[in-house]
Request: fold
Amino acid sequence: SVLAFVSQTIQRPSGFATLRRTATIAKNDEASSQSSSSSSSTDSNSILDCMSAVKTQAVDYANQFGLDPSTEGAFYALFLAIRLQDFVRQQKPFVLRHEQVQKLAWGGDDVAWPGFFGMDHLEQALEDDFLDAARGSTNNREGWKITDVSVPRGESFEEARMTFDDVQSALEKGTVIFNAAGAHIPKLAGPTLACSDATWLPCALNLYITAAGKRTSAPPHTDKQDVVVIQSTGSKHWKVYSPPNPADKPQAEMFARGKMDDSLPLYLMESDLGCELLLETSLYPGDVLFIPAAFPHTTSTIPPKDGQAESHPATQDTSVHLTMGFDHHIWELDYLSVRRLALRRAGVTDTALGRMKDEENPYTGACNELPDAVRKNLFAELPLGLLNDEDSGNAETMIEEVTRDVERISFTVDENTASQVPRSVWRETVERVRQQGIG
Reply:
């Protein structure tokens, strides 16, 4: 059962988390769903069951650090469930409705994700600190481009800082994006750290704000992170597609398609690029959406033309959503990067894939022309929990599992290069990654 599995696997928050939390906080001072498979519903139920099983631990976690069980505690349970159910590596989008999470009766209180962060909070944050933001383009036939929301009006601090009026003006033209907002806005530090503590992985929280009535709030694009989207205010309509075949454009990075000079025109997604529409849904306050890395998605704040969506009061409000990124590929915590490092440590030239220099993008070129199954295994994320340096009981098992997998995957990529790497080097590389990262 889920409960038995969790009781064997879960680890309580540790001194490492306490130190990290102290340092970071001190530094900061059934709704509309147009297209959804039965597998998505099954996935949602699995996550909900696991959240229910870890509820007590999540409430304890929040209380231990003086956080709100109905917000940060519920966030912690969500991310822990994703980790324990290994959903990142399953690469399937899913949706959780606020009403479903609410039934868990979180700590005796309602789950406080709706309205957790709104325009009033943003206005206060801009008054309290010097923040940066970008505005995204809205042409769904071109790559997503961003420009600065504001430029300094003078040399003084007050003249240089971005204002709430600047944000409101930018919203007339597109979505406003606050990258790494969890590192700069104290109210968002708790959810950010809940994600990192639950997954033992670096997590970034971005803030996205879009005015109501925007036909395209983000053109089709892919991201380098697996992301969890939590709708806070307003509503947003999402379309999530399967990835285009990387072999059709091998010099393009599959984790950055549809950005800058690369484009994923919406009208070509299915007909020419072969992308399957996997999920189409509207999110309302408190709803959650998981999107795997490299899966194209596009958004709008115009509700679909059905009575239920159009009549929902949230569609008239400014859309504010939080995006939590599982930063595996940002930190090169995948099998491709471990293979690359092992070859370097063994002094073996990568005649199969190349891209051995630091300045070369390892996610482009020959790796995209590998057979589909081989490439997917090579690009797969390392398991969540590998970086947990306090779980000595499971460390040896996980190190051995990752060592075995990276060696096996490397032989499927190219037997000649893989056979030149001693078994001891594969393991030493995994141990080094666990302790220090790829860099």
Q: What stands out?
A: The CA atoms of residues 250 and 368 lie 5 Å apart. The chain is about 40% helix and 15% strand. Confidence is low (pLDDT under 50) at residues 1-37.
